Amino acid sequence: MSVLAWIGEFLVLFGTIFYFLSTLGLIRMPDVYNRMQTATKSATLGSLGVIVGTGLWAVGKGLSIAWLTKAIVIGVFLLLTNPISAHALIRGAYKSGIPLWEGSVVDKYREHLEKKASEKKEVEEGEE
Amino acid sequence: MLKRALAIVVILIIGYWLAQGLSQVPFGQDKMLVGKYYLEHVKEQTGAVNAVTAVVVNYRGFDTLGEVTVLFIASTGVGALLWRKKRKRTAKTEGSVVLTTGSKLLFPFIMLFGMYIFIHGHLTPGGGFPGGATIATAFLLMYMAFTIYEIPHKGFEVTEGFAGMGYVVVGLIGLAIGGYFLFDWIWQTWHLGTSNIGRLFSGGFIPVIYTIIGIKVGTELSGIIDNMLKEEVKE
């Protein structure tokens, strides 16, 4: 039983370290996109560690199995929703014209959009 | 500048005055008068484990009726303010595939969770209002992810009205059986579930009323979202 509690404690520690790293990334990173990268990835992993760790810890301490069940349900929900919200935020940021960091070299998405726009223009001109 | 400084000074004075008043209240001491009665009698009188929902629905049911009325008036007020003949959704940018697929997959789970909250109002924290708000969130998600999504307006308004009437009817049955409005007839007269306090089929009429309130609040807030997202169409 106490092995479960140990694993839980370790997972909670692991998760808090990743939480710390994600906040550090928020301060250290140069632009919105890099910040979202660090914030979502490490915060998702950190939350998973803390939530599942809490469930295991509680079960290891002799509390009911319901703790672990609820923790896993919350963890799965978070695992599925966090990337979608990050995706929506990033896409919204790009669409509203927030510039990339000046050090970044490749912007394939802009090239793609420009190519699409020029193709559309050509088609419209051809119709006239 | 002067205005802002003056405002800060006034707010500081008000804050000091409030803090002076509150500093006389002891913190962390047993100050329960009515609360003690609620905590000691809640299980045998209402059958609910969650004392908050028992107080809100059973002991002070009139307040909840008032809150439901306030929400209903807010919904009809928004509807009346934004009333136009030709109103449509004019959103143009379709959400990305990830977003639309994700919302489509999440929608039933959010609905399920909302229903879980309002059905288990007498056992776990929550109740009709959070459950209804969760259901409305699911509809908001669909509205945000799809440009053409629309709730069936007529049906939602009818459901809302019937749910509100259901609450009053439950109260009136209590008036007929027990002699006063919102009398808990399922618990006090039928003794339904008196042997299994803490399980799903207990709590008198709290689950019934919270199901009604959850449906009502969910449809109401969805209706408000629907009203606010539509724009007038110019011919």
Which structural category fits the helices and strands of chain A? mainly alpha
Total of helices of chain B = 9
User: How many strand elements of chain B?
Assistant: 2
Helix content of chain A: over 70%
Secondary-structure element sequence of chain A? HHHH
How many helices of chain A? The count is: 4
* Straight-line N-to-C gap of chain A: 77 Å
Radius of gyration of chain B: 23 Å
The sequence of SSEs of chain B as H and E is HHHHEHHHHHE
Q: Quick check: average pLDDT of chain B?
A: 86
Q: Report the largest inter-chain contact.
A: A-B, 8 and 9 residues
What strand order characterises the main sheet of chain B? 1-2
**How would the global form of chain B be characterised?**
globular
Uncertain stretches of 5 or more adjacent residues of chain A = none
**Principal-axis shape of chain A:** elongated
**Number of folding domains of chain B?**
1
Oligomer: heterodimer
Largest sheet of chain B: 2 strands, antiparallel
Give the number of DSSP strands of chain A. 0
Low-confidence sequence ranges of chain B: none
Percent range of helical residues of chain B = 55-70%
Explain how this protein is built:
The complex is a heterodimer of chains A (128) and B (235). Chain A is mostly helical. In chain A, 83% of the residues lie in helices and 0% in strands. Chain A contains 4 helices and no strands. Chain A starts with a helix and ends with a helix. Chain B has one domain (54-78, 93-232). Chain B has 9 helices and 2 strands; from the N terminus they run H-H-H-H-E-H-H-H-H-H-E. Chain B has a two-stranded antiparallel ribbon. In chain B, helix 4 runs parallel beside helix 9 and helix 5 runs antiparallel to helix 6. Chain B is globular. The A-B interface holds A 77, 80-81, 84, 87-88, 91, 95 and B 93, 95-96, 98-99, 102, 105-106, 109.
